[in-house]
């Protein structure tokens, strides 16, 4: 299996990484089977988070006997040093291990630094000294925080959204990580469900300029796993057909299309902007049932409560008129229902 060197960590991970968020939605038995199948077919990198309910526990159940043969990253959304230690102890327990290869700050709104008032980075350094974590990483959806983290030189890995729909500014983050010799872990390689052609997504990531990029694919079903494993045996090439697919998606998903990045959040009216502002696309490009559930109907209804404060609009890096986009998506949603 093709390997990726994760920057200065010197860890060698499989080009196909396993994103373990979706295994929350399947039983423990199914999850253990899926994880072990992935491992025995060459996937050696698994990414989870304290916030993904029982995902860590399922990884622990699958790999307690093979722990030293694989690389695990998890995340903490702690806001204080006290929460950090609590999360770390819990993750070690659930994962049935005494160390975590990459411990990441989970999408913080700021870049934790030594000596800051939260004490988060100092706690991570101490945990590293104690051998509980091997490398310190950060995940983010915000361009400014990502750039600050890279410039700080404090982090060994960056996890950031990246797919063939990435904007120039996102591609710049990938390049900056390469220059800084930081591992780049790509989340949302299928753009949160908007990209359907996984072969095109894989071929895009496999290009030589992205040799340092380690995508983690969110996997819930065996057929999804089989798809990615098949690309190791028969790697899809970015030839005419797949390139046309990418060009078509880029064309269709341009203009006032919401990337789902979440830079504009939180919203004071509690609107889940990163999904609600692209609902029309999700309904047409992803299985519809889940988006039409009573839970999602209630989330969409919150758009009625938009106060037009324009906070989101000011923060959107793509220059979108977010409140207008939300209204448009809500109208379409009601018609669709
Ligand atoms: S304009 Fe509406 S959607 Fe945007 S932040 Fe304000 S309340 Fe939320
Ligand atoms: S509206 Fe803009 S900032 Fe908000 S999720 Fe969509 S693309 Fe990102």
From TrEMBL:
Record's signal peptide: none
UniProt key word Iron-sulfur: yes
Listed Pfam families: Aldo_ket_red (PF00248), Fer4_17 (PF13534)
Organism whose genome encodes this protein: Blautia argi
Gene Ontology MF term list: iron-sulfur cluster binding; metal ion binding; oxidoreductase activity
Domain called NADP-dependent oxidoreductase: residue spans: 20-196
PROSITE patterns noted in UniProt: 4FE4S_FER_1
Official protein name in the record: Aldo/keto reductase
Annotated keywords: Iron, Iron-sulfur, Metal-binding
InterPro entries, A to Z: 4Fe4S_Fe_S_CS (IPR017900), AKR (IPR020471), AKR2_Oxidoreductase (IPR053135), NAD(P)_OxRdtase_dom_sf (IPR036812), NADP_OxRdtase_dom (IPR023210)
């Amino acid at each position: 299996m093709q390997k990726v060197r994760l920057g200065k960590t010197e860890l060698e991970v499989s080009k196909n990484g396993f994103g373990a968020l979706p295994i929350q939605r399947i039983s423990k038995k199914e999850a253990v089977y899926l994880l072990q199948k992935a491992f025995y077919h060459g996937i050696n990198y698994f990414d989870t988070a304290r916030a993904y309910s029982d995902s860590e526990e399922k990884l622990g159940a699958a790999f307690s006997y093979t722990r030293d043969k694989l690389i695990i990253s998890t995340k903490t959304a702690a806001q204080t040093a006290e929460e950090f230690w609590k999360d770390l102890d819990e993750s070690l327990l659930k994962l049935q291990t005494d160390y975590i290869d990459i411990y990441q700050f989970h999408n913080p709104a700021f870049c934790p630094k030594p000596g800051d008032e939260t004490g988060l980075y100092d706690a991570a350094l101490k945990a590293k000294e104690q051998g509980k974590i091997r490398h310190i990483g950060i995940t983010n959806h915000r361009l400014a925080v990502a750039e600050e983290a890279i410039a700080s030189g404090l982090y060994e890995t960056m996890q950031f959204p990246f797919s063939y729909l990435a904007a120039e500014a996102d591609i710049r983050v990938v390049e900056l990580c390469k220059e800084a010799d930081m591992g780049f872990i790509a989340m949302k390689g299928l753009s949160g469900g908007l990209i359907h052609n996984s072969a095109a997504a894989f071929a895009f990531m496999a290009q030589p300029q992205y040799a340092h990029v380690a995508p983690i694919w969110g996997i819930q079903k065996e057929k999804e796993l089989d798809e990615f494993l098949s690309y190791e045996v028969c790697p899809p090439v970015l030839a005419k057909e797949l390139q046309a697919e990418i060009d078509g998606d880029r064309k269709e998903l341009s203009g006032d299309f919401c990337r789902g990045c979440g830079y504009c959040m939180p919203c004071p009216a509690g609107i889940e902007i990163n999904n609600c502002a692209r609902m029309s696309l999700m309904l047409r490009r992803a299985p519809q049932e889940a988006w039409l559930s009573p839970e999602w109907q209630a989330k969409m209804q919150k758009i009625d409560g938009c106060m037009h404060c324009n906070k989101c609009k000011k923060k959107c890096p793509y220059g979108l008129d977010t409140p207008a986009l939300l209204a448009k998506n809500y109208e379409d949603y009601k018609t669709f229902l």
